[in-house]
Amino acid sequence: MSAVLDHPTGHVHDHHDDHHAPTGWRRWVFATNHKDIGTLYLLFSFTMLMVGGILALCIRAELFRPGLQFFNPELFNQFTTMHGLIMVFGAIMPAFVGFANWMIPLQIGASDMAFARMNNFSFWLMIPAALMLVGSFFMPGGAPAAGWTLYAPLTLQMGPSMDAGIFAMHILGASSIMGSINIIVTILNMRAPGMTLMKMPMFAWTWLITAYLLIAVMPVLAGAITMTLTDRHFGTSFFTPAGGGDPVMYQHIFWFFGHPEVYIMILPAFGIISQIVPAFARKRLFGYASMVYATASIAILSFIVWAHHMFATGMPVTGQLFFMYATMLIAVPTGVKIFNWLATMWRGSMTFETPMLWAIGFIFVFTMGGFTGLICAVAPVDIQIQDTYYVVAHFHYVLVAGSLYALFAGVYYWGPKWTGVMYSETRGKIHFWGSLIFFNITFFPMHFLGLAGMPRRYADYPMQFADFNALASIGAFGFGFMQVYFFLFVVIPMMRGQGAKAPQKPWEAAEGLEWEVPSPAPFHTFENPPKLDVTATKVIG
């Protein structure tokens, strides 16, 4: 939406900028401004990305060659478990909430999030949860080693760190639910006059749908881990066969949360890509309405496919067939999205600045991950590749190349609006190409390892798997160093204001209300909401 703001001079109200804005530590500890809270979320998630990344590098260092080099198998399993939990709940989800906090009020013309103090609380809840997760390594018996899925009966045999992990997950779940309520109320109640739901930016749409998913499934996870807790300490037998319980029931409950969770981590990424591709193709997004319906379809279908994670548990053939076909059905709306992005680029006047490179990289590598997911969905094939490195390759192609690439794309795209300075295009491209190459060196060989039968979560392996594992480990260290490079040479200079001053609209064809405020975005924006022309996508003054 090209726009003129509702003000006689055509300028944004930033005259309150000098007061109301707290300074020093109080600005951050008591933050109620959506931009500050968004920044806190993004910094927190990057910190957790580094912690989870260090655990990943410990895993890859151990697997560089056969035999036990550095860690015993128990500690190795703690690394795999905590790497998964920290990356999912500490890095990817908070990063998207940071984007939501920063961008949704700017995109819909709202002055802030609906519940500013609850917004602050939902962020600060994450700090003790993260400390409990990371601190579990220093508890008697070490961190949980049951895999990130926390399957019974392993979880019933873990030390006290398992309880700390369960408590941390509860707190993170409460934070997610509060954040989701805030996002839903903000989007439904605080849009600028004239902005109907079907005129909202795609990022706002994807987050609205994601927030509903979070509210639906976080209580399910809470139920599963509470049952685990009572089995551990209060004599219940939900998952203990000796007492009449069923460990497979845990898997059903967990994956009823876990599969929609996968889409919680990818739908906001779809929204970011849907903002970036039209801006650099200099065309309107192809099939906006179909994108909205496809996103909603993915969310609804995500509730009926959970047991495709469980083909090897001995479910009846009828159940296998249902979950196999339901999973294949999800490929349809996902394919619609990819088709729409490609159609947007088709015959567009494309340029390849860093955000567009990340967006195209996302489409390319995420599609590969989607195809391997379809292969995993075929029950007879999945029985062979279940719990092998093929599955590890699949979900890292979807999550690293999906969620993480979109997050990087978003930082480069909206970063100038946040900080007021342009990043270095050269450094951005080094970060992109280095990450793309090292990512594929890391995870592509894992498809072959999995097809050859190498199981996941093993600290040792036969000599026949040595070459591909060495290659994957080299790629992992390269990929890790590229993210340190990103922080040191892209993020920190932008935060310090080093670089060319960003114009109000750094990308000429970018559309949306966020480009109608100065760069950097002032502390208070849209105190008087902009008025949108109901018949068009223009904003009237």
UniProtKB/TrEMBL annotation:
TM spans (from-to):
40-63, 83-102, 123-146, 166-190, 202-229, 249-273, 285-309, 321-343, 355-381, 393-414, 430-450, 470-492
Q: Which residues form the Cytochrome oxidase subunit I profile domain?
A: 19-533
- Bias (Basic and acidic residues) occurs at 8-21
Under the heading InterPro entries, the entry gives: Cyt_c_oxase-like_su1_dom, Cyt_c_oxase-like_su1_sf, Cyt_C_Oxase_1, Cyt_c_Oxase_su1_BS, Cyt_c_oxase_su1_dom, Cyt_c_oxidase_su1_bac
The organism's superkingdom is given as Bacteria
Pathway entry: Energy metabolism; oxidative phosphorylation
Q: Which PROSITE patterns match?
A: COX1, COX1_CUB
Q: What is its EC number?
A: 7.1.1.9
Q: Where in the cell is it found?
A: Cell membrane; Membrane
Q: Which Pfam families match?
A: COX1
Membrane topology term? Multi-pass membrane protein
Recorded catalytic activity of this chain's protein: 4 Fe(II)-[cytochrome c] + O2 + 8 H(+)(in) = 4 Fe(III)-[cytochrome c] + 2 H2O + 4 H(+)(out)
The family line of this record is: Belongs to the heme-copper respiratory oxidase family.
Record function comment: Cytochrome c oxidase is the component of the respiratory chain that catalyzes the reduction of oxygen to water. Subunits 1-3 form the functional core of the enzyme complex. CO I is the catalytic subunit of the enzyme. Electrons originating in cytochrome c are transferred via the copper A center of subunit 2 and heme A of subunit 1 to the bimetallic center formed by heme A3 and copper B.
Q: Which NCBIfam families match?
A: CtaD_CoxA (TIGR02891)
Protein name, per record = Cytochrome c oxidase subunit 1
